[in-house]
Amino acid sequence: MKLYYAPGACSLSPHIALSESGLPFEAVRVSTKTHTLDDGSDFYAINPLGYVPLLVLDTGEHLHEGPAIVQYIADQVPERALAPRNGSFARYKLQEWLNFISTELHKAFSPLFNPNASDDAKAAAKQQLGARLAWVDSQLNGADYLLGAQFSVADAYLFTVTNWAKPVGLDLSKLPHLLAWRERVGKRPAVIAAMTAEGLLKTA
What we know:
Layout: E1 2-5, H1 12-21, E2 26-29, E3 54-56, E4 62-64, H2 66-76, H3 89-106, H4 110-113, H5 119-139, H6 153-162, H7 165-168, H8 176-186, H9 189-197
Helix pairs in contact: 1-2, 1-6, 1-9, 3-6, 5-8
């Protein structure tokens, strides 16, 4: 498999999932500014949508969109318990989290990365994100991970998105359960491996 990613972007979520899975894969870096690969080739020729993540299977089939990709990865290695069993209520709770993170958090960060967004738009985005993350904080009270005791691909996605808080000046200091969860997830060897591979952590 090949995972096309951009360092620190939402593609870090499937990168973490792949690292957790133990499956063999190749990570291919994409520039989000030039939409080219390191060898200069045009990413649009591979993915007409032009954005990451993109997972290319050994069969040549393509999977777009992080929530779909991470579930596919999890289902290849059910013994790793990265996602609950298909058809179970717990699986629908996982999908609930993936949808919430995608629509209520991930997209809400967009104005904060847009240089053309007005100050009012950015302030509104921070207010909305603050309210949503406060709810997440309440859900993590007494829980190790989003689904309880077991790490899942939803944790990988939330960790990726909340990594963006510091660069855009979003204060998480009043969300102790979220901060404790972030520290716990950040210590996982697979998370460290994925972030190191993307150049997000300094190596000794």
